[in-house]
Write a structure and sequence with these properties.
721 residues, mainly alpha, globular
Length: 721
Amino acid sequence: MSSPSTIAHYWRRLRGSDRFAECLRVLLALGGVIVYCLLGRHAAAMIPAMLGVIACALAETEDHWRSRFGTLLITLICFASVAFVVEGLLPHPVAFACALPLMTFLLVMLGAVSARYATIAGATLILAVYTMIGADQPQGPPMDLWVTLIPLLTGAAWYGMLSLLWSMLSPQLAVRHALARVFDALADYLEGKAALFTPVHGMDRDAMLLSLAMQNEHVVEALNDTRIVLIDRIGMRRPRGATAARLQLYFKAQDIHERISSSHHPYAALAAAFYHSDVLFRCEHMLRLEADQCRRHAEALRLRVTPASSVDLSAAQKDLRASIDALRRDTPAPPELLLRSLEALLRNITAIQTLLEDETPPMTSVEGEDIALQNPGPQSLREAWQRIAIQLTPRSSRFRHALRLAIALMAGYGILHLIELRHGYWILLTTLLVCQPSYGATRVRMLQRVLGTVIGVIVGWATLRLLPATPWQLLLIVLSGVVFFAARLRRYSTATAAITLFVVLCFNQAGSGYAVMWPRLLDTLIGAAIAALSIYLILPDWQGRQLDQVLANTLRNDARYLQQIMAQYIHGKRDDLAYRIARREAHNADAALSGMLANMLREPGRQRRGNEDLLRFLTIAHTMLGHISALGAHRQAIGSSQALGTITLAGNLAVTQLEHLADALGASNPAPQADNGSGQSVTLQVDSLEDEAARLVLGQLALILAHRDRLAVVIHDIQAA
């Protein structure tokens, strides 16, 4: 038997989950609908009202309650407009067949305004299909407005008001969960980085670097999500109280990310040089301890407690310091270049430790620029329209997806009328949910959707056989809806199985649940097939077609980041807005590249462009970004004018060469030839400098130039393929 303390521990962990609040809201909303419909004898309104709850929950964004109120109004206006259009045109198949693709195209293009509007647009399309499903119920006149439309919108409004009240009572909940996801991602990244320091022969470090580049995508995504949540809380005001503390914690996470991303020397060379020493094992051990500390920060944010400090970190730092000192006393001592790399690595790891242990914010300046965040949302209606207008071209991925989805839904509507399927509107719902912007994502979603539907039908059949009593089925309706929202972001097959069980049990209240099982499965297969054909035949968005631009964008943003860093070696360290934007855009470009390659690997073989060369490019580019990040981590003003002049010339050379390579890719010109002499000439100047900081900068610039030359060779191979 579990003790009360154990139960309390699990309850705190459950309450701290980032899915708990949404699931509890769905539980209350669906339960409220069932209770109201049973007590008020409105059984016919139960299914559309619950569908309205689900649609509004899918449109939910992590806004502050002030913003959420406006978002809720926009959502309900979109829901009502589309629902009335569907109800009005559904009896006229030809008119509806013309309106459906137009409505789909407009709503998908609305998502170009911002991520918030993209979420609302997607949920509005789902509600449009729910309206069709509600009108297709067996009760009453098939087009009775009061039986379908009003309960649907009422259910959406009910969940919206519940969500708004929740946001007012817990204004910092979304911020804490977003920051917790950041520290969890940082912990995973630290674990991956620690593995690179294992001094074992035969390790495939290129594969580990590739995995690390993919992991960096999750860190970047978590940081971007947190920034949007913070911007919504701050608005035009100066942050105060809890919001100011969360903002400073976000800046701290950015600083930690830059330091974790840093690479001071090739890992294979370090492993070969210190194979018989314990220094790399100690580096690995300390990084893993810091990963554990990041996880403690994440758990503390979720549980609203103070993170526990680790006494092991200080001891590990002292042991690493002693190990480096012992290497210096060896006879013969290792090369000075390697020892300087170890010293820089120790300083960087120690700085991460300080950031994790110190509760004071890393940014103490009170100037507005230093705490400003770049708002990604449109600042006016004109800017919103400009964001849409710029996407109105076949070269835009959003435009192609909008046109593809519009045609796919029109084809699905034609098929359900052609073969006169009962409950055929599930074809449209499956097509809508399966058809993703990329081929790889569509294929994964299709398999998950079909598998989940099969499991859901089997579980639904077993449930109807074992639990024929209505009260138990009503309870399972609510629980299956909760499971859907608990699993929809991470386990889509489980979510699909849960929502299929939800549908079977709901329709069993209005008729026969057995009667909808085969139609549900058949419609899912047809809808998935339409989505698969559309992504393959209608303006396919093969990743290889945008490859040159993505590669060029990666190099161009690396050059801007490096340029911002070099300026700070002149004027001193300053985490201002321009620097943070350049740093973020460089990591965003690196994440976009890894995401594009992941999608490309799922595409048909003949559509791929030099997979091995592209993986080499990602590995080299991410390693080069690590060397740039190392320069960012060690920023300080260089006092010697001679040293400053030397590193300024070398920095300008590196920036220029990266820009030239990016320009050649962007214009689809042959890549400039690798210039191995530039990196070697910079390396030869390192020992001529007396300033230790300048030596570090020049050494990193030499490595950046060497990686730039390697990228030029890889690009040449890609273009020749």
